[in-house]
Amino acid sequence: MPKNSKKNNNSRVSGIELNSVDAKKKKHESQNNFVEMLPREITIQIFSVLDLGSLCTALLVCKSWYDVIKNSDSCLWKPQCLIIRAVCPRDIDNDLKSGFSWRVTLERNYWKSKVKHEWLSGKYSNICSSISLPEKSMYPMDADTWGEILEAELER
User: Fold this and answer.
1) Count of CB atoms within 10 A of residue 91's CB?
2) Which of 2, 67, 120, 138 sits at 20 to 30 Å (Cα–Cα) from 113?
């Protein structure tokens, strides 16, 4: 019985030590988190220089970064969405007319734009049959999109 009480005391003591270490760590992280220290406008301006991959990675850093990035639709997501609009203007415009936010529109059209860009740039011009297509190159696209791709292939 004395062993149990000794273990409980040790875990309680180490629990207190761990809690104080965790509190110090959280305080230190909070002091180093520019999102919590700077005005929102400045924070958004900092995030606005990131490319799409970096912006998506920044979403995963911590809750405060996630909240700012996710909720800055027109400041952060609109410019990214306009980049892919160059490849998928009809799709982007239709989503926006349907009331989707810039972020959701980007999520809905990102992979489609990547695949369409690869097709339009001639990456798959040398493929003779559907068996030769890499799986990732096939993305559900509507007839109009495939028509645009076919026209580009015929012009080559």
Assistant:
1) 21
2) 67
For the chain, give every domain's residue range: 73-156
How would you class 109 by CB atoms within 10 Å of its CB: exposed for 0-12, middle for 13-18, buried for 19 or more? buried
| Predicted model pTM | 0.65
Q: b/e per residue, 51-89, with b = 16+ CB within 10 A?
A: ebeebeebeeeeeebeebbeebeebbbbebbeebbebbe
**Residue 123 CB partners (closer than 8 Å, separation 6+):** 137
